[in-house]
## 1
Amino acid sequence: MTLELHNVSKVVRGETHIRDVSLRLERGSLNVLLGPTLSGKTSLMRLMAGLDEPTSGRVIMDGTDVTGWPVRKRSVAMVYQQFINYPTLSVWENIASPLKVAGRPKDEIERKVAEAAKLLRIDKMLDRTPLELSGGQQQRTALARALVKGADLVLLDEPLANLDYKLREELREELPRLFAETGSILVYATTEPAEALLLGGHTATLHEGAVTQFGPTLDVYRRPHDRRTAQVFSDPPMNFLDIELKGGMAWIGEAVVPAAGSLHGLADGGYTIGFRPNHLALKAGRPHAVELEAVVAVTEITGSESFVHMDYAGCRWVALAHGVHEPEIDAPVRVWLDPERFFVFDRAGDLVAAPEPRAAAA
Amino acid sequence: MDKKYDNRAWFMVLPVVLLVAFSALVPLMTVVNYSVQDTFGNNVFFWAGTDWFEDVLLSDRFHDALWRQFLFSGIILAIEVPLGIAVALAMPRKGWLVPVCLVTMALPLLIPWNVVGTIWQVFARPDIGLLGYFLNNVLGMSFNYTLNPLHAWITVIVMDVWHWTSLVVLLCYAGLQSIPDAYYQAARIDGASKWAIFRHIQLPKLHRVLLIAVLLRFMDSFMIYTEPFVVTGGGPGSATTFLSIDLVKMAIGQFDLGRAAAFSIVYFLIILLVSWAFYTVMTGKTKDSQ
């Protein structure tokens, strides 16, 4: 069972929602669609499900061209951000509904519903209606409905976004295991890079309707092919700065330093460096760190961490520092960049060099 | 410690008290006053006790009007509610047709009741009315709402359906629009039939607006006066004499003030009772679904 998209595009009233997407999703795999709101995650899922027909391109399921097949003829289950259940039916009837529509025998329905309810730990609430359940239990009901269907393709559209933090962690851990046994192709849309990393599997990063990169999640995180991917796969966003290299020296803002770390051995010319907020240090530490002076804009303190937003040469940067930091607003602040942690992009935005993954790096 | 009472707050309430007194209490008490007394003119009144009430409650005339009233309200609810839902379901969910449909639907609601009555009075006339002429001369029926009680009923009911179904449509349409698109998608993925979507998604979501629609249409139709009065005048005979038409005949036509006053109070109590019953059902159901 594989799902292939060949150069799929979707244009609605002159507006491009999906731009030339090609993907190959394998049986039993977990695939994360990662991108900000309106990047086309839901549109892409609708095309995969057959709820919409692509403007151009082919959708191949298991070698069969299913482009234009109605959703009814495909084997698809979907779970949404809102908790979608039939409001007047009991939890049992809700879970049983796809099996009933498919006309399965009664004992099979009984067995499958009981199994799914047990897996999702809602077996004590089967007689209630969805409105008598908590949000987490309502979403578990919707997930159980998707699970019993045994569909080839299971689409989860930000399924945990409306749940509180604790429930989200709990369900996120269970989700990949739930569907692993069925051998379905699992597609999971999210806006949060951290969620993609926690889920693992493969990740496709989306930007303005186009897939910028698709590969094993950690690979995409460590070696984003281009600036866009790096931007999408970093929260808080990655910091960027244009630099120049000439004769083994690097012009980084006001500093001129030997081209070390990721910059070592690159040809002369203009580049853009990117570095994650946790590699923008507020105190000196690493030996080759480049020292710069930025201006503090805003500080957000979460308790164990502080996000210090600052402006440097027309760029807005964010530094993530442990503990509570309260630098004065509009005052200069000294920051240190570690060349070892630079992502280097050429002026066109393609990756030239990435930091070496550190063994057991914190 | 002494507590100081400040009674100035009462002055703030005074305007409302006066307004309610003059708009509701005083007229109501006047009616109560008439309903327990009898007079032969010259402003001389005799105590009549509950005589008028007994008289009204036991009279065939009142029973007939009440029965006609319930029948009328029942019929128009049975037509307007399902029809309203059906039209709302058939209306487009987006696009340029939406405002066109909404305005078209709202038009009958904007026409004064008196005018609606006049329109239908002329429209259904066998001699010059478009509908009446068509039925008689093209279809060869002998349709005459001034002679045939059944024809009079049909005319009055069709008129009410024409005038008020839009209200149910607009309420239901608003209810349908509030259902997130994801529900329909989920149903499509499940492979649910149109009937299943209606029965398990749309109808449950319409539950509250429908109760309001039924309540509004019931109260309004139960108090109907202007339109049948203009079209049939309560006739032929007393075939379309509903409660309020009968009441006006009694109070103004026959100047039977005592009996009419008792009639009014009974009428008022019936509406109050039915509205209370509706309210109880509505709030009860709401509790269930939370």
Note: Chain A touches chain B through 22 residues (CB under 8 Å).
## 2
Amino acid sequence: MTVGSRTLVLATIPERHRVTSRRRVVERLIVSLLALATLASVALLLIILGYVVAQGLPAINVDFFTQRPRPVGEVGGGVQPALVGTLVLAAVSGVIAIPVGIAAAIFVVEYRTGRFATPVRFAAELIAGLPSIVIGVFVWAFLVRGLIGHFAALAGAVSLAVIMVPIVARTVEEVLRLVPNSLREAALALGAPRWKVIMRVVLPTARAGVITAAVLALARSAGETAPLLLTALGNDFFSTDLLRPIGALPLQIYRYAVSPYDDWHTKAWGASLVLVLVIGAIGLLLRVVARQRVN
Amino acid sequence: MLVPLTLAAIALLIVIDSWPSLSRFGLSYFTTSVWDPVHLVFGAAAYVYGTIVTTLVAVVLATPVALGASIFLTEFAPRRIRGPVAYLIEILAYIPSIVYGLWAIFVMVPVMRDRVEPALQGSLGKVPVIGQLFSGTPVGLDLLSGGVVLAIMILPILTAVSREVLLAVPPTQREAMIGLGATRWEAVSLAVLPYARPGIIGGIVLGVARAFGETMAVTMVVGNSSRDISGSLFVPGYTMASAIANQFVEADSELYFSAIVEVALLLLLVAIVVNTIARYLIRRSIADRPQGAVV
């Protein structure tokens, strides 16, 4: 475009609609502010993770993973009971939550015309929105005071399971919707009953996604603290007994963080580092798996 | 079928357990702030106040940053960095609450106490009316710190939802404005943001839902001591969730216990209402897209 025609075009646009220098300055200013907001968010992440790594690394050694906590004043010891407790809680809550979550998703997707599909989905969403401490109060009333009678690992696992079910259900639901209907129709046309279609055709097709859902829920629940405070209570001794109190990394971090001892603070950072690494590793794994599925 | 039953069981048990307090104190439970386990008089107004104040602080601080970041990441950032940076911000959501709490106690609170709060007092503290908010001794462990931690914690969900909603705005909205000679910011502010408004508001409401139920990180920095309501942000306070976490296990009489469970009941009701509103608003904005994993 030549200079002449540009002037001509500009002349036809009213003054206030031209890209004047003032409008250009406003544009630049706002875009820099937006970039600053983005930068600040990322910086927060780096600062927090940076502290966890820098403060946590000195606490990490072999004893940290293999020893039980020592009394105040004695140096050394580790968080082994809490580590084992977290694994036990994850295993038990997974065994409870994953089948229930998958079943709920099947209900919602495969039997969507049924009378119960909508209430199941709605209830799952509401539970997902509940503060975890409320779930802790519920499990306390139901198990700790009710069926079991005292603080117990099982109660902790159930509270985690209640948190996990909606996560599993929603993620599996999305995966099930991706299974092509033609597969279902083909199996049904061969005379297979509904349940057989789901077990033999739909679930195997969606297997990768179902596994993703389970792992995602486990990663989420691994960092939960509030409900465990009211149910699993914590335990400084090695224990895998489901009917006795059990330790967990988040509980250990809490206890150490609010204590007045420097050595315990270091251990709290160390335990945080372990927790973040575990969750991070799971997240990375999920991302890789998800990418492979897309390809 | 287990899922709706669980929800019903949660609601039922919590109502039953809070009944003694409900029937004894009635409305005065919400209007008085006397919380006296010795004389068995309970009013939760201070907890409700603490929750509202910290949540407000969190939303006021987090919304501009999250909105700025999501606008930058959908409209202005170089295409190649959009996905990765959004993912980085999302990672903030996977850091366990207890790790935020640990970081807040040892890193954020000293900075708040020594730098931020005196600075606020020196500048805004002299302004009439608003100055009231910043009166008193800066202690670090107070409502303001609780709000700031919450702001960091709800940042990822706010960003993710706003981003999702902005991505769902049809490109024709932008193209039409740019075709009319608007700069890109003008296109965003005049054609994209109004279109996305319900969804963004939904995201904020979802952030509110996260913030008021959040327990551990807030409990660790909010102070947990004062029971009086004063106009200042520089006073230690309680939120509903932190009150449950701190006092649940030590409740030694039936009425005391039931008063705490009533706090949980209140949290439960608010969670259900707020989440339902948020989901409705977000759905309306992302009508025919599948629900993202974060929502």
Note: The first helix of chain B runs from residue 2 to 25.
